[in-house]
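Work Package 3 (structural annotation) set out to generate three-dimensional models for the target panel prioritized at the project kickoff. During this period the team completed the workflow that converts sequence records into discrete structure tokens, so that structures can be stored uniformly alongside our sequence database. As a representative example, we reproduce one entry of 336 residues exactly as it appears in the project archive.
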Amino acid sequence: MVSHRRPARVTVLTAAAATAAAALGAVPASADPGAGSAASRATVDRLFEEAEKATEGYNRADEKTDALRRTVSQAQDSLARGQERINLMRGALGSVAGAQYRSGGIDPALALLLSSDPDTYLDRASALDRITARQGAALGELRREQRRLNQKRSEARATLAELERSRAEVARHKRVVERKLAEARRVLASLTAEERADFDRSSRSGGRAEELPAMSEAAPGSSRAAAAVLAARSAVGRPYVWGATGPSAFDCSGLMVWSYGKAGISLPRTSSAQRYAGRQVPLSQAQPGDLVTYRGDASHVGIYAGNGQVIHAPYPGAAVRYDPVNMMSHVTVTRV
């Protein structure tokens, strides 16, 4: 289960500062104090980015685990039905064999000699031959069904082993995310209130100096896109929780899955897959409802809301909010 705990409030700032200094390297007393806080903010940015990439891996592995779990469940149902079918076939063959044993315990030639009505005996013998032929065909089908069942069992065992590997991968990504976020919390705790506010401001702009391109102020491209934007707007203020898909908390791609789900559109779980969930268009032609992914690996995503703004779930400790569409590098716009 994904942990939804929020970072604990740190009250002993000196201890946290000492921890951060050990992680970042102590700043000499003669150095510019702003340099230390800038390094801390850069470290937090890096840790959040690394945590988000690990979250992508977690979501990807978790999605695979869910699919494998469904496959295993279907395979188990199929095996149970196959075994029941084999049991019925065995029962039918056993009944025929028992009847033959009870009625055919003497040599056929002797039975013909002793029969008071040879014509009736021959009719019965012909019927018995037909029964025996059907029994042989049923036995062949039973053997084929048993081979099919054994093959299904082998495939189910392989799928179950893959499921266990996927579960282990989920756990590994979870440990990485939690470690990165714990490091980020320790560094953030070392910042003064003013430095933290400065970090929040810079995280909204991404510290990017370039101007926004001329943005078209077109309406949403479809009623579903409009519905997705409305859903995302309704989530503003709800907390970021990695691995969450709403309705009370979200990670970045989880917010997109939930918002578009409200519009009747099923999106892939990860932001890297969401980048290719539709047709890519230039940023200057973005319309409300378009997906906007960031970084070369598309490890972050938001939804374009118009007026040069996106709605996104930024990072742990921050709520779903509006930010400039060019807040990060490698902007890609996808129209679903």
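Residues 118-189 form the longest helix (72 residues).
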